[in-house]
């Protein structure tokens, strides 16, 4: 299957474009494959086009001067990045960082063609629907950071990953916008209470009800 066909399969708004516009998309899409860990964009870099994720995943985060990062959201196949969209719409540089968290394949729509597609009501509706979904997610993130303590957020994160969570303390810290030392201290406390069992790059949940009480 070609990249253009995959885009049309994953993104119905593209498949619904008028034939002339679809032909332009097919002709101008540029596909790239990157390994996990690749920085796809960073603060103060220009946005060169509108990305479609065909395979893999991207973590978008806001870096701080002290080296910490606040995760904002992930972009999976069939989804796209509102940071990229807002940069294209506002003719501004990136104000966040995007990193491939798995081997990832992208198809990039050039900026001039993105501007052309905005005239199509279906594509415009797709874009605005995306903004609404992502804004709801970001508002939830703001609420969690502002009003929930770190131990509550950590307990909720563990509960959402299943009985066995395979991740390093640093990875959990990155997910929560914290530092490894704080997460390690909280996990040790959870283990001392009999809520979890810790091993190398793994957290096993022993008392889900206890974690739910903390998360609440």
TrEMBL record:
Entry keyword set: DNA-binding, Transcription, Transcription regulation
Protein's UniProt name: CRP/FNR family transcriptional regulator
Keyword Ribosomal protein: no
SUPFAM superfamilies (alphabetical): cAMP-binding domain-like, Winged helix' DNA-binding domain
Organism in which the protein naturally occurs: Sulfurisoma sediminicola
Residue stretches making up the HTH crp-type domain: 148-209
Superkingdom, taxonomy of origin: Bacteria
Record-linked CDD domains: CAP_ED
GO molecular function, one term: DNA binding
């Amino acid at each position: 299957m070609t990249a253009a066909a995959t885009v049309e399969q994953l993104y119905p708004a593209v498949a619904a474009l008028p034939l002339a516009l679809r032909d332009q998309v097919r002709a101008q899409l540029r596909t790239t494959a990157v390994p996990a860990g690749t920085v796809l964009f960073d603060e103060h870099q220009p946005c060169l086009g509108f990305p479609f994720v065909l395979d893999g995943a991207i973590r978008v985060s806001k870096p701080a001067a002290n080296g910490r990062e606040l995760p904002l959201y992930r972009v999976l196949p069939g989804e796209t990045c509102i940071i990229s969209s807002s940069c294209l719409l506002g003719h501004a540089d990136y104000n966040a960082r995007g990193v491939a968290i798995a081997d990832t394949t992208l198809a990039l729509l050039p900026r001039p063609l993105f501007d052309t597609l905005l005239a199509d009501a279906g594509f415009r509706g797709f874009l605005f629907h995306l903004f609404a979904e992502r804004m709801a997610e970001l508002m939830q993130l703001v609420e969690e950071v502002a009003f929930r303590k770190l131990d509550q957020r950590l307990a909720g994160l563990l509960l959402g990953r299943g009985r066995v969570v395979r991740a390093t303390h640093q990875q959990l810290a990155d997910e929560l916008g914290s530092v490894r030392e704080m997460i390690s201290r909280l996990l040790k406390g959870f283990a001392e209470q009999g809520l979890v069992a810790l091993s190398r790059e793994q957290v096993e949940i022993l008392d889900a009800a206890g974690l739910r009480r903390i998360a609440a």
